[in-house]
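Discussion board: Methods & Data

I've been asked by a reviewer to show the raw model output for two of the constructs in my manuscript, not just the figures. I'm not sure how much to include, so I'm pasting the format here to get opinions. Each protein appears as its amino acid sequence followed by a line of discrete structure tokens. Is this the kind of thing reviewers expect to see in a supplement, or should I convert it first? Here is construct A:
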Amino acid sequence: MIAKTLVAEEKKAKKAYTKQLKAVSKTKRTMKSLEVEVRNKHGGKTHVKRVVPEKNKAKYGKYSKLLKAQNKKLAKVKKSYTSKKNLIARRKKYASMSKSLKSINSQIKKTNKVLGQPKSAIYLADLSSDQVIFFGEFDATETNAAETPSQPVDNSDPRTNYSRRTDKTISCTAYLYAQDNSSPEARQADLEAQFNAFQKWQLWGKELTLRGSSYWKHVYIQSISKSTENKDQNVLKLSLTFSYRKIAKVTYSKKKSKGKKTPKAGSASKSDPRRNRVHHMKVGDNIYRVAKKYGVPVSKLYAENPKAKTRKGKVIKI
């Protein structure tokens, strides 16, 4: 049961979001009214461009700041509304699943009390429906296959360091029993409806829960075949093969952030301490040695110092 306070908070958040959305739309319309269209002909085509006249620039700037603040508030309000909406959706889904599971367990418990009724049951694993199909399970065979890659060794036994399961299945002969015995047509329709449910679950790749000779929560119908030689009109004979599969979690790689461009040799950004550097010439210094020392091109030194002199005591810009 979803708390009334949570529903009230969600309605309040939705109202605030709608109100803020209208405010943003109104500001955008006002800003658009301050613009004018300018048409230019170029290459035989007319190009339309919207500009703000000089007399409206002050007012336009005011609304631009207002829109920025409104968009910031809108994002905050939308986040609050979305979180409450998603929380209610999750709780509704959980309540529906709990209700379905309660109904399924009740049906299984009721069936187990009746002698002669099929005891194996199968239903949707996500509990989106409380539909349960009961069937008689005979000659069930569970198969677990594994792969153990190995490496041959001279004059000895092969070696391996791991083993992994490749397949896990249950094969059985199943008998569907008609629940509606009011008439032969009703029995036939009931059996066909149960068989069609099996076919739909297989076709749509539905994850199922099997409660019979084995209790598996991640089951898929691998194959299903119907026998046409049924002497009893109340029973439908099937051959079923179930495979055990867990849903894989899809992982997404994070988008690589564009790395900062490394400055070229000799270049320096505005915040780089290399800017405005100088070098005091000493005995034995020359332009080439200074360029090598600071990692800058010789041409840059000549560009910065057109009248460069290499005498002792002279100052050169880097």
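Construct B, same format:
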Amino acid sequence: MMAAIPQDLLDRIRALEREVRELRGRSQMRPAMDRILNGNVVIGEGGSLEVRAPDGTTLTLIGRVPPDYPGGIPQQSFLVSRNDGSVAIAVWSANPDRTPIQPLQIFDRKGSVILADDVLSEGLARPYIPYTLAMTNHSTESTEWSSCYESYGIAQHPRIAAYIGIVTAGQGGQVRLLVNDQVVATGGNYANLRGHWAVPGYAYSTEIKLEIQARRTGAATIVYPRPYYVMGVESAPHYLAVEPLSAQPEPQPR
């Protein structure tokens, strides 16, 4: 004859069986592995996130991207490439030893920078934007400096590049460029003026005044300045150099 089992004990056993079944069912219900809900993903200690195309081409790198800073300090960057591996967008320095501040850059398919900020100053590095010039006098016969072209513009770049030719009747004559009423460059006697110079008192998106002056010297009887171009340019060109993502060292797992 079986011993009598208290009713409350049987109830407890049934309750335990229900809980085991529920736990077993829950263990088979895994959350979706392609979603992140109500939380953050942290990649630290020099790690990086890499997205690759089916053929293995790197499309995106976020985190540590070579080259490192001097002393092996990781450069934390952001790069996006096209399907062919050519860089499209980057917050990254190709030469961190010379330019530790990373420029924002947009590239064409050949690797040329078509848009970038100027990290050595402020404002734009690329594209170059030309200034328009209004002619006040097409020539001068004076031996004193005379205004021939004048304009006002909005400064977008920290430097200004110009190519100003000179045509004279007789050998002699000079041209010079003024920015904000300050002489930034003067051409030699009977010589074209070509180069790039800092904008005096530069501040991004402020108004600047441009002026081209000329004067007669030597045997010249009349001087005709010829502005071929005057445009804003970046502080220095070297930090815009870039290599395609395929040329960068393979990120190593950490």
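Answer (T.O., handling editor elsewhere):
This is acceptable in a supplement if you add a one-line summary per construct. For B, something like: Residues 7-27 form the longest helix (21 residues).
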